[in-house]
Each structure stands twice: as structure tokens, then as C-alpha cells.
Amino acid sequence: MDIPRIFTISESAHRIHNPFTPEKYATLGHALRMKPGTRILDLGSGSGEMLCTWARDYGISGVGIDMSQLFSKQAKLRAEELGVTDRVDFIHNDAAGFVADEKYHVAACVGATWIAGGVAGTIKLLEKSLKHGGMILIGEPYWLQQPTTEEIARACGATCIADFLTLNGLVTFFDQLDYDVVEMVLADQEGWDRYEAAKWLTMRHWLAENPDDEFAEEVRTALTISPKRHVTYTREGGICINGTMI
Ligand code: SAH
């Protein structure tokens, strides 16, 4: 079981697999008032940077589940590196339908809400693992400007306009689902550059090291089109991610 190979190649050197920076994750942990004893479940935990750094900085404990073999392994290594293996654990698995036996104070899904078919489905799923009075943390992209055509939406990396809401639409949607939005930390252009541009150098290195790999053509194409797509569409007016706590 694994995720598509293009991600494990292009994001193999990423610690954070979304447009959040280490500073943004620290701000978010502070904003959510994380403290020793807080237990967090993280679906689609990637390379574990959120849980590992919050365990180090705020004394939380938690479990992350991720379908990427490589990212799950990297998360375990990061926990060792930061000396927090007694507090965080990472499981390589499909998180779809996952419900914890022992409930958590915080149930999170940052940049992976497709795991339960979108924002509403993910909230429903996370709620099942949440203690009474707990918090759900959702990281979801939103349109800075809603594309005027489906073609532009696809050029931004979405499958269609309906993939994402605007920030206003997203906050309204949480309200319609009958949740309070109680905090919000937004990614910015710098974070998008770190997320997207860091893939280019990783892909360039990978191509130099694996010229005869059957996947080389796909990586070559991705490297050719990604920088232009980023500066034309996603950087200025396309999608942006937020860390919303509801
Ligand atoms: N939250 C992480 C990673 C976000 S990227 C971070 O902030 O860095 C999305 C992640 O979802 C990837 O790590 C990918 O491997 C994982 N993923 C995709 N489908 C999944 C599934 N069905 N179950 C669990 N993880 C999944």
C-alpha cells in the first residue's frame, strides 16, 4: 500500500508536505494552546513534523497515520531525532474510515481531506475519535480568487472549480455544519514557494541520479511544467491552504 510515486519522489526531501512552514506550525500549536497531556490524532500525518515538533515544543503526545511508506518511515526517524519517541507514534496505513478506540483531545487532518471524501466527510470521521469537548483541526486549500473557467482551475492543480471553496465559503461551510471556528492560521506565498519550489530541486537531483528509471519521463515533465504553473497560477491567485480549527 502506498501513494502515487510522483509524490514520494518530488516530496522526498520535504519535512512538511503542505505550504505551512516550521514557523506556521509553531504559531498554530501556540494558537491552539497545546500543552503537556494534550493527545492528538493526525490522519495523513506525512513525515510527522507537526506531531514531532509539538511534542518537543509543547509536550503533546499523539499518533499519526499515513499511507506513504517513505513518509511514515521519515516520521519515525524525525521522532528519534527530536527525542520524542516516547510521546508520538506513526502508523503506516490507509486512514480512510479510521476510528480510534481511545479518544483524543485533538483530531487533525492537514492537507488530506480526500481521505474521507472532503471536508464534511473528514469532520464526521474525525469526530468519532474525539473526546467530548475536543477540537478538530482541518487544513484545507481554498481559492484566493475563484477561477472563472474549469480550464483555469485545472491549471491551478485542481480537478475542477468545485474542489475548493473561497476562505469565506469555507468558514461559512463550517458554520453550516454547525461547528464553531475557534482559531485560524493561514499559509502565505512564502510557504507556497517553500512547498512547491522545494520539489523542483529534489526532482532535478532525482533525475540526475536515476536517468534510466521508467519513471524519469514523468518526473522530467513535472519539472518542466511545475515552475511556470506555480508562478502563473498557484502563487498569485490560485489555491492557498489554511489551518482551521473548528
Ligand atoms: N499533514 C502532513 C501531510 C500532508 S500531505 C503535513 O502537514 O506534512 C498528504 C498526506 O496524506 C501525504 O503524506 C500522503 O501520504 C497522505 N495520504 C494520502 N492518502 C492517504 C490515506 N488514504 N490514508 C492516510 N494517509 C494518506
Automatic annotation (TrEMBL):
Q: Name one GO biological process term.
A: methylation
What are the protein's UniProt keywords?
Methyltransferase, Transferase
Q: Which residues cross the membrane?
A: none
Name-wise, this protein is: Trans-aconitate methyltransferase
Superkingdom in the source lineage: Bacteria
What Pfam family is a match for this entry? Answer: Methyltransf_25
Look up and give the organism this protein is from. Answer: Budvicia aquatica
- Positions of the Methyltransferase domain: 40-134
Is the Transferase keyword given for this protein? yes
For this UniProt entry, the molecular function terms from Gene Ontology, in alphabetical order, are: methyltransferase activity
